Amino acid sequence: MVGRKSLSGDYCPSARSLDVIGDWWSLLIVRDAFDGMTRFGEFQKSLGIAKNILAQRLRTLVERGILAPVPAANGGAHQEYHLTEMGRDLFPVMVALRQWGERYLFEPGEPHSKLVDRDTGRPIRLDVRTDDGSAVTADRALILKVPVADED
Amino acid sequence: MVGRKSLSGDYCPSARSLDVIGDWWSLLIVRDAFDGMTRFGEFQKSLGIAKNILAQRLRTLVERGILAPVPAANGGAHQEYHLTEMGRDLFPVMVALRQWGERYLFEPGEPHSKLVDRDTGRPIRLDVRTDDGSAVTADRALILKVPVADED
DNA sequence: ATCAAATGGTTTCATTATAAAACCGAATCA
DNA sequence: TGATTCGGTTTTATAATGAAACCATTTGAT
User: Fold this and answer.
1) With a CB-CB cutoff of 8 Å, which residues 55-74 of chain A face chain B?
2) What is the four-CA torsion angle of A117, A114, A124, A84, rounded to 10 degrees?
3) Comparing C-alpha atoms, which of B9, B101, B14 is closest to residue A29?
4) Per residue in B78-136, pLDDT tens?
5) Is the domain A13-140 a CATH 1.20.1440.20 member?
6) Is the pLDDT of residue B1 over 50?
7) What pLDDT does A3 receive?
8) Cα–Cα distances in angstroms (integers) from residue B71 to residues B34, B67, B80, in the given order
9) Interatomic CA–C1' length for residue A125 and nucleotide C5, angstroms
10) Residue A24, Cα to own-chain centre: how many angstroms?
């Protein structure tokens, strides 16, 4: 959408992800959706986004399978926007962004919203690990590029 | 930068994060930095970004403490851009984006780059958990809003 | 039933950001 | 010493965004 250069052909999954949700508004809309918002007006009020832009973003989020338009909730005639499974699976992305923001973008002692387990109340975090469970930092990671056939 | 409305006052850490790195190019530059790139020309070639835009983005990433300009590497007079600790701590965000992209943005069997532990070769993943180690899905999460003092 | 207001957009237009290209000084390279 | 690359900046064209006006359909109140 905003991207001039489409990264959809890139072999780096991060790049493809950013191609789909890397624009300014999409992840904010998704965040609000995780927060329970479903309606046009809710998003619009929450984000202060222009209505035409919101309409466009909702459209592309639906096109891309992250949101689904569901006919009604309470019998009303309006439409709602719900996260699909694909959309819900952005949860770790949101948590990662949250965790980074908590650490670097708040003054010590400055209040911020917190993410907890609904049942136990325990704080929710995320960690990068290998499949045997050991924690991994960035410097221990290595990206294996996909072997290039014969193009330059 | 791109954001008309600054989310820097928002009490949601995700929103503040997106305010800082939520624009189209910043995370792609960070991805390349994780990939070992340090020089203007490397980023420019890799991303196909216009040079003026790249210069601007590098400037704001430095301003915001995500990249640091380091004088030289091999004695040369040129400048390099290195991830700061703050920048390296975006690693989980990159992994989360990668993981989501792998699942939803590639055809079955389509090749993509892989992230592995440099030493053991084991694949790197990330999971959302509570502090007692139990995995958490989005539907089990609850956002505790910061108590509002008296403003509307 | 009726009128007013809210909802969920679309359209139009002004403003802003982006991209492309030209340009430029300093450093490398031959 | 001359040509080329590097790391940008400036200028200009184009594309995206934001604000406001507008509109059809619902919803709510009388």
Assistant:
1) 65
2) 70
3) B14
4) 889 999 999 999 999 999 999 999 999 999 999 999 999 999 999 999 999 999 999 99
5) no
6) no
7) 44
8) 19, 13, 6
9) 45
10) 11
- Output the six-digit token pair for B120: 């053991």
Interface TM-score (ipTM) > 0.85: yes
Q: Give me the phi and psi of A67, to 5 degrees please.
A: -115, 155
Q: CA-CA distances (angstroms) from residue B87 to A32, A86, B84, B140?
A: 26, 27, 5, 29
Q: Which residues of B are less than 8 Å from A105 in CB distance?
A: 8, 13, 16-17, 20
Indicate yes or no: strand C within 7 A of the C-beta of B23. Answer: yes
- Tokens representing B59? 């400037």
Would you state the torsion angle of the CA atoms of residues B31, B34, B39, B45, taken in this order, to the nearest 10 degrees? -40
Q: How far does Cα A76 stand from its chain's mean position?
A: 28
DSSP-derived letter for residue A138 is G
Tens-digit pLDDT profile for residues A120-138? 999 999 999 999 999 999 9
Under the banding of pLDDT at 50, 70 and 90, the label for residue A75 is low
Please name the residues in contact with A108: beta carbons below 8 A apart, sequence gap of 6 or more: none
A132: tokens are 């045997």
Q: In one letter, which amino acid is A120?
A: T
Q: Where are the domains of chain B?
A: 13-140
The Cβ-side half-sphere exposure at B94, using a 13 Å CA radius, reads 25
Nearest to B131 among A11, A123, A142 (CB): A123
Q: A129: closest CA among B84, B96, B35?
A: B96
